[in-house]
């Protein structure tokens, strides 16, 4: 695993788009907004965008955001987002290794809590996260802007 670079974007965006939800909201044919986002993320020390590489091929990715906070006695937390594993690698244990990396990085960053959101329709992902020790403890809300 290593930090993502601009050269990784075609593979990362293809993985983001490789499911029914991602196919509706991602645009693999227009990488400009992804380049701008990666540039912003890469200059922020509280953001980690990583890729998993096997045989010189991008096979997984995720984003980890560190958030200092006031609640929970000034706790720092992290949010895991955009977890993706290439279709040919699913079931190999790579997803668990990506999440383990995020949890360990969160510990090193002084986080007291790791959280994530997952679309309600992703029931397989929910079972996967629960097997890794996560609890579906909150309801989430979104407001498109």
Which key features would you list for this structure?
alpha+beta; globular; 145 residues; 5-stranded mixed beta sheet
Note down, in words, how this protein is organized.
The chain has 145 residues and is an alpha+beta fold. It has helices at 9-16, 20-25, 32-42, 71-74, 94-108, 123-131, and strands at residues 2-3, 47-54, 57-68, 76-85, 113-116. A five-stranded mixed beta sheet has the order 1-2-3-4-5, sandwiched between helices. The protein starts with a strand and ends in a 14-residue tail after the last helix. The mean pLDDT is 93.
Give the gist of this structure.
It is built from six helices and five strands; from the N terminus they run E-H-H-H-E-E-H-E-H-E-H.
Q: What's the topology here?
A:
Blueprint: E1 2-3, H1 9-16, H2 20-25, H3 32-42, E2 47-54, E3 57-68, H4 71-74, E4 76-85, H5 94-108, E5 113-116, H6 123-131
Please write the string of helix (H) and strand (E) elements: EHHHEEHEHEH
Q: How many strands? A: 5
Q: Residue ranges: pLDDT <50 for 5 or more in a row?
A: none
Radius of gyration: 15 Å
